[in-house]
Amino acid sequence: MAPQDIVIVGAGFSAAALVIHLLKRGFPASHLTVIGHGLLGAGNAYGCNSDVFRLNIREDLPIIFSEDPLHFARWAKVHVDDHDAKTHAGYFYLRRDFAKYINQLIQEYDPQRQLRQIPANVINIQQNQTLWQLALDTGESVLAKNLVLATGNMPPKWPCPIHINANKTSEKLAAYSLVENPWSGEWVQTINQTDDIILLGGGLTALDTISALENIHHRGKIYIVSPRGKLPPEQATWIRSQKPLWPSQLTPRTLVRFMRSYLPDASVHSVEWQCAWEELRPQLNEIWQGFSAQQRAKLSKRLGWLWSLYRFRASPQSIAAFQKLKQQIDIQIGRVKEVQVNDDDISVNLNNGTRITGHWVINCTGVGVDGLAENLIINKIAIADALGISIAVNKHFEVLRTTSTSWDNLFLLGPGTMGSLGDVVAASAIAAQAERLSLQLKTRGQRASMDRPLSA
């Protein structure tokens, strides 16, 4: 196969956002190759079959085009028939409808279907002179002039060992009653209404799971295992009305001190508190990037859990579902140590000695591992970021090969850049990255064309 101009690894939202912006800038679809499975743009976040898994943000916040921030809101009003989307805090649409929106954008920019998508996984990346050679699990090999890693949020993995008794009954029980990745929503079709459910984790995924259970009128016990026992607050009708006057020469300590002083003495569920919180957020990425790797690691270790709690607030529909099942829900404070599949049930052992038994265990921790990123670090193509969760990049999304040098044709886009660039998880933040990177790649392509010698 001839070298491809741009190869994008991943087929979720991060990859789709970059494709959309490249096509929008006039980059030929035939010069793009996407490597990944499934509907381009769906991924783990939006590839849901559930009728209740919703975006946790209102309709005006998933911004794909900076010059037209309400594009999705207008599209949804025309193309989505969902009376349950409307709440007091805005419209919260289904995740699968957002995937349809993204895929329709791709089709509009590539009506001839010239974009090539290879349904495969990349198992290895290595240099081949000035190119990148990708080995796929299909046995194919792809050469890339420019390579963009856009794998997004990896499928969650079990956060603890799973022990299965060596008999057929236990093996059968495990096959149906252990849900490692709940994001598709298919598991809910096989749950009995009276089954006892154990959820590992208490974030948005747990609330989505509870919404799915409420939708089938579940009557069994629901255990939530959470290290601190706190669930995400409900989204309020917040708006940003002013910009904070940040002090100069911030350190992690003065950052925390200023944020505490700026936030009002009010409930985190209130409009007042959430307005102030959201007014702080726009400058935080720039501040984060000014900190050293050691400062970032220290700040994340100390306050990362609190940031996630207040940053990822829930849709009103999810909170309503929780309230309906509240009498059946038992929140267990602790960390899961191991899961044991027995002859007739499943037990979860916590680090504090507590033992919980049920019929199903659903992994809602959201913890995934990017094996490809780990491979690049092991092979010394990349270095780890400050948080040790992905590979490090500079502000141009170029993968760092050392702390001071980077590749000029290897890029990372999306949630994996969080350790280097800050809060890059929301669709709008990822789309903003894609918009900037598409301009860089388009400019680079134009320069390459100008540098080519004229034919005789």
Automatic annotation (TrEMBL):
SUPFAM superfamilies per record: FAD/NAD(P)-binding domain
Domain FAD-dependent urate hydroxylase HpyO/Asp monooxygenase CreE-like FAD/NAD(P)-binding intervals: 7-153
InterPro entries: FAD/NAD-bd_sf, HpyO/CreE_NAD-binding, L-asp_N-monooxygenase_NS-form
Pfam family, one: NAD_binding_9
PANTHER family: BLR0577 PROTEIN
Protein name: FAD-dependent urate hydroxylase HpyO/Asp monooxygenase CreE-like FAD/NAD(P)-binding domain-containing protein
Species whose genome carries this gene: Polynucleobacter antarcticus
